[in-house]
Please model this.
Amino acid sequence: MTKLSDTNRNHTFTPYGHSKTPRNPTNSLQFHGEFLHSTVGLYFLGLGARTYNPRIFRFHSSDSLSPFSLGGINSYTYCLSDPINLSDPTGRSPLLLRPKTITLDTNWTLKSRPDYVQKQLRWGNSSAKIFNSDESPATLSTTPPSKQQLHESSHSILPSRRAPEYINVAPQAIARLPDSTRISLRGYIRTANQHNDFKAQNVRHLPSDSPIVKDFIQNFGEARRLRTALKEIYRTTFDEFERNLLSTVLRVRL
Model:
């Protein structure tokens, strides 16, 4: 029988999570408390969704939210090459927690009308709106409680900064779109949400030559290009479902 030692051990890690300290086979939790496979020396982030190699500072698989076909940030990098200021416990979002999220959940049921769509637009847990696909896109608008209180009181103090709005469209809704629209929409959702993540880090206060600022500029340019493409699709499409969905997405400002 092997008796486990109660002696505490100090481990020194590089910013990317590599350690030359001999690993204790009885303790698999290492850098940032993440699971490290003692044999292959890889971190399994996001409950095993992605494997990360701290020796080469890279993931072994690309981020599914950032495919190469859409350009943008290198999808194999860890923490946008800035592990000192950023953390990525899931392997998908190397930034801070999102303060507010707008979620568009699109579900449909077998009804007499094939175009019937039940949708909900939520600001956190504040409100919900259910409507048919033939309703005007204007019915999608929602006012957060913070803004309602602002309008109700003539003596309210204006907020110093607009809270970021994040987009999340159900995969079933995206699957109903044409291929060209689907690719542009996925790319725009990724870059638009990434843009808000960058803003949450106050990257505008960082040196202009820092890697994260360069990634911010590149990502913003890609988001604007994809947004322009979606606007053109919205302007020319005759599909009511596609038009309503794009209207909702484009209403969220960059």
